[in-house]
Amino acid sequence: MSTAKATLSALRQRIAAIETTARSVPPAEAASSGSAPAISTSRAGRIALDRDEVDLTLGGGLARGALHEIHAASGADNIAASGFSLALALAAAPAGRTIVWVRQDYAAKEGGELHADGLQALGLDPAALILVQLRDPLAVLRAGGEATRCGALGAVIIEPWGEPKALDLTTQRRFSLAAEISGVTVFLLRPGARPMPGGAETRWQIASSPATPMAMNAPGHPTFDLTLLRHRHGPPGGPWRLEWNRDEKCFQRPTLLRDPATLSRIEPAPHPAERAPFRLAG
C-alpha cells in the first residue's frame, strides 16, 4: 500500500503542476489562440465519430465531459478495446492537453504493457501521456477520480481489471459528476468484466476488424467493429465498422475499394532517437 500511496502522491504533484501551468496562460493569449479557458466547469461540444449514422444515433456525437464505458467483445478483443479507448481520448483531448491512463497492473499482465511505438502508431506522442499503474483496484479508482477532477487534462482512461466491488453505481456516478464539473471526458475501460447497468453516459462493445489495405498493399488504418450497448438519452445501436485515422485524429467509414491516386499518405513514425517515452507517475 505504501507504493500505491507514493504513486498517488506523485500523480497529485503532476496534476498540480499541469493545473498551475494551465492557469499561468494569460486570458488574452487564450482568447487570441481561439482555445477554451484552461480551467473550465464545462467543455461544450461533442466528439464526432463518423459524421453519419453513429453520430446521429448519439444525438450529434459522443458527449464531452462525461463518463463512457468500453468493453471488449471477447478476451481476444481486449487490445482492440484499448486502442479504441485511446483513439476516443485523442479525439476528445484539446490540442496540447495531457492524457492520463490509470490501469491496474493485472490488466497489463493479462493484456500486455503499453508500448511507445504502438501508442505513436495510433497518433499519440508518448510524452503527452501520464501512465499510472497500480496493484489495488481501489487505488486505481481513487487515482482515476483525482485525474477526473483536473480540468486542465485532455482526457482520462481508467482501467481496473474484472469486476471490483468498489466500482459500484455510486462510484460511477461520482466519476460522471466529476467529469461534468471539470469538462474532462473519461473512458472506463473494462477488461475481464461483463456489461452491467451503471452510471456511464454510453456503454460500448468493441471487436477488432480486418483493415483495408492501402496503396502497395501497405497496412491500412486500425479498424473497429463497435456496438452501442447503452445510451442514456436514446436507444442502443450498431454494429458499425469504423477506421481510425491517426493523422487526422478522427474516425472514418472504411472504403472497400481504394483508388491509389486518392489515398492519403500516412507519415512514417519518427526515428527512435526522436521519440520521448511516456511519463510514469511514481
UniProtKB/TrEMBL annotation:
Comp. bias intervals (Basic and acidic residues): 272-282
Region (Disordered), start-end ranges: 261-282
Protein name: ImuA family protein
Record lineage: Bacteria, Pseudomonadati, Pseudomonadota, Alphaproteobacteria, Hyphomicrobiales
